[in-house]
Design brief:
By secondary structure, the protein is an alpha/beta fold. The protein has 16 helices and 13 strands. Bound molecules: uracil. Uracil (URA) binds next to helix 9.
């Protein structure tokens, strides 16, 4: 087999065979195919697309390019969750402890943030002492003993995706449904859980800007998961404005803790209950989604959810005191307020622009190696649909670098649109695909 033939074939609209896909993935992973040929194939795929079978073969080949975890020695039905990424998305920090407190084990590997989206691992590192790198043995032990462990993505999982994702990032080939499906599902299938719940984001701040595209991506991923023999479902949810009010690492963990106590913002509370309730159902601890939601709500009310988070923090070497005392989190030296310039109603808050403002404040990275200011970020006092008076605070920007804060403030100003007439907040949960 040769790479040039594969390139001609896909460029001209042909269907790739399993053998061609296996050849490309295995040879590229071991460095036998150069980046320029891989880039050409990615671009051909971008324009010609992958059909169902090609997507499945690519997913499998990428999954098999690295380590495949077997979690069979952990009792119970393990359910994993994946969000396609967004701004202010701290749901893993809420959904994980909610599920574990209902008896569904969560063995989760999460990523770091890059660009304007945040990563769960960075958020967790805002907890003093918290270890996101654990040995496989310790990872399993923590799940067995506390019912939950969240660590950084193992370097060995889906090795092909690491190389391909980095290449897609610099060749304008990230936002293709087949490639996104194979990238996400190869990692989820290799991570060893019995069930997978996907949160497919839709809107300005997401890869999929409209409902139809988000729906297609969700369907493709659910189909791949089921074909691979895993229980799989997806919710399509809104990402036209940031999720919750806090954006930035330490401040998102604080918001997650408030939400676990039942005192969080309405949108993130609804999303967390919806996702966790479904995972409890998938994990066999409820006979319906509704019953699952009721169970997680009980854990919010009776303190079980926040206790579970504390147990996880302690098991992973962190300071469990943060759950009661927010002054233990890294604190920003400076704050600046964004004031409204007119009276009316918040019409829109562009999630991508708030994400960039948060990144500028110091909360995010531009390059993988960049250090982040864990205390930095933005708090949205006003969200879509809420009334605002001229001179009232729309958002607060915070961090340790005064200059960065003034740039972040100017950026955040561009995110807000104010209308004269009342505006309806966007519908958060759009669809369940299962
Ligand atoms: N997240 C991933 O892991 N891969 C993609 O391709 C897109 C989002």
């Amino acid at each position: 087999m040769n790479m040039l033939e594969i390139l001609y074939h896909k460029r001209d609209g042909g269907k790739l065979s399993k053998e061609q896909i296996d050849f490309f993935v295995s040879q590229y992973t071991k460095g036998a195919i150069p980046d320029y040929q891989a880039s050409a194939l990615l671009m051909a795929i971008f324009f010609r697309d992958l059909d169902r079978e090609e997507t499945y073969w690519l997913t499998r080949a990428m999954m098999e390019s690295g380590e495949i975890l077997d979690l069979a020695d952990i009792p119970g039905i393990k359910v994993d969750k994946h969000s396609t990424g967004g701004v202010g998305d701290k749901t893993t920090l809420i959904v994980g402890p909610l599920c574990a407190s209902c008896g569904v084990p969560v063995a989760k590997m999460s990523g770091r943030g890059l660009g304007f989206t945040g990563g769960t691992v960075d958020k967790l590192e805002a907890i003093p002492g918290f270890q996101t790198t654990l040995s496989q043995e310790r990872f399993r032990q923590v799940v067995r003993e506390t019912g939950i462990c969240v660590i950084g993505q193992s370097q060995g999982i889906a090795a092909a995706d690491k190389k391909l994702y980095a290449l897609r990032d610099v060749t304008a080939t990230v936002d293709n449904k087949g490639l996104i499906t194979a990238s996400i599902m190869s990692k989820k299938l290799a991570a060893g859980s019995d069930g997978i719940l996907l949160d497919v984001k839709c809107g300005q701040g997401a890869f999929m800007k409209n409902l139809e595209d988000a729906r297609k991506l969700a369907r493709a991923m659910v189909e791949i998961g089921k074909t691979a023999g895993k229980q799989t479902a997806a919710f399509v949810t809104d990402m036209s404005q940031p999720l919750g009010r806090a954006v930035g690492n330490a401040s998102e963990v604080m918001e997650a803790i408030r939400t676990l106590r039942g005192q969080g913002p309405e949108d993130i509370t609804l999303l967390a209950k919806t996702l966790a309730g479904y995972m409890v159902f998938m994990g066999g601890k409820a006979s319906s989604h509704e019953e699952g939601m009721k169970k997680v709500e009980d854990q919010m009310k009776n303190g079980g959810a926040v206790r579970k988070l504390k147990e996880m923090i302690l098991a992973q070497g962190g300071d469990g005191g943060v759950v009661e005392d927010f002054s233990l989190f890294p604190q920003p030296a400076f704050r600046a307020e964004l004031k409204g310039e007119e009276t009316g109603f918040v019409e829109s808050i562009r999630a991508d622009v708030i994400g960039s403002a948060s990144q500028i404040s110091g909360a995010g990275r531009e390059k993988k190696e960049d250090a982040i200011d864990l205390s930095a970020g933005i708090y949205l006092q006003k969200k879509v649909g809420e009334p605002v008076e001229k001179g009232e605070t729309l958002a607060v920007v915070f961090g340790n670098d005064r200059e960065k804060l003034s740039l972040a403030l100017e950026k955040a100003r561009l995110a807000y649109d104010i209308a004269e007439k009342p505006v309806k907040a966007p519908e958060l949960i759009k669809e369940l695909i299962c």
